[in-house]
Amino acid sequence: MSGRVRVLVHGASGRMGMTLLRLAADREDLCVCAAVSGRPPKQRVIDGVPYFGASELAGVPAFDVAVDFSLPGGFDALLALCLKRRAALVSGTTGLDDAQRAALESAGGSIPVLWASNFSLGVAVLQDLVARAAAVLSGWDCDIVESHHTRKLDAPSGTALTLGEAAAGQGATPHYASIRAGDIVGEHLVQFTSHGERIELVHRATNRDIFANGALHVAARLAGRNPGHYAIADVLSVDAA
Ligand SMILES: NC(=O)c1ccc[n+]([C@@H]2O[C@H](COP(=O)([O-])OP(=O)(O)OC[C@H]3O[C@@H](n4cnc5c(N)ncnc54)[C@H](OP(=O)(O)O)[C@@H]3O)[C@@H](O)[C@H]2O)c1
Prior knowledge:
This protein is of the alpha/beta class. Strand 6 (88-91), helix 3 (98-107) and strand 7 (112-115) form a beta-alpha-beta unit. The chain has seven helices and twelve strands. Helix 1 crosses helix 6, helix 2 runs parallel beside helix 3 and helix 4 (121-136) packs parallel to helix 5 (158-168). Bound molecules: NADP nicotinamide-adenine-dinucleotide phosphate. NADP nicotinamide-adenine-dinucleotide phosphate is lined by residues 10-17, 36-39, 54, 69-71, 73-74, 92-95, 116-119, 211. Pathway: Amino-acid biosynthesis; L-lysine biosynthesis via DAP pathway; (S)-tetrahydrodipicolinate from L-aspartate: step 4/4. Its EC number is 1.17.1.8. InterPro entries: DapB_C, DapB_N, DapB_N_CS, DHDPR_bac, NAD(P)-bd_dom_sf.
């Protein structure tokens, strides 16, 4: 796209939303043109960005891509808006139900969409390592332990489920455990256990910036693409396009 990509941040008042807004302000490839939260905002404009509540979604200005880190309750309305406006959607919202996953899948026929349970480079590498370990450790127990802050609503985390899919794709049967404690940003331990030995693969996120930077990077590259269902690797691999 020529010029700055216009981004709508959905879930703007949340932990991820605020991180996205802070990091987007330093980027030259995009600008935030609207910030949407669940509840109506106390302040209508902050640093030049207009704020909206979920009930005011229809009135947001034109945008090229929505970056969504909110809760499942707001997802359907955002997806409908992106379809109506022919805008791209990047979503990291976890805990979507089957109907929402199906709606996202079919939206790929009309607009570019990208959902990922985790936007960090480290977890992408962990996913690859888990698949490789599961492929050779046939018959070993596979356990995934995820830890997050006490205000996280869904369990197991979306990332744990993605890691489990990587293991299951190679024949393992993953079991999950979830810990909710303090202010943990996100930790995932994938453990392969046999008799007398154990392999542990761990990723620890200590800062939300890794997820927000990944999502903004992807959003700037997804806007203006052909309709389709994209993965992070697809967008990065066509970086020069
Ligand atoms: N994929 C990844 O890499 C990744 C990384 C971290 C987190 N996440 C996921 O991102 C999501 C947000 O996490 P968080 O920690 O930022 O959560 P959070 O702090 O609880 O923030 C949630 C945000 O969603 C808004 N919201 C709630 N209902 C809404 C609705 N109906 N319409 C529009 N907005 C609505 C909230 O607005 P109000 O404050 O007004 O209610 C708030 O801005 C979660 O699903 C989490 O699992 C994904």
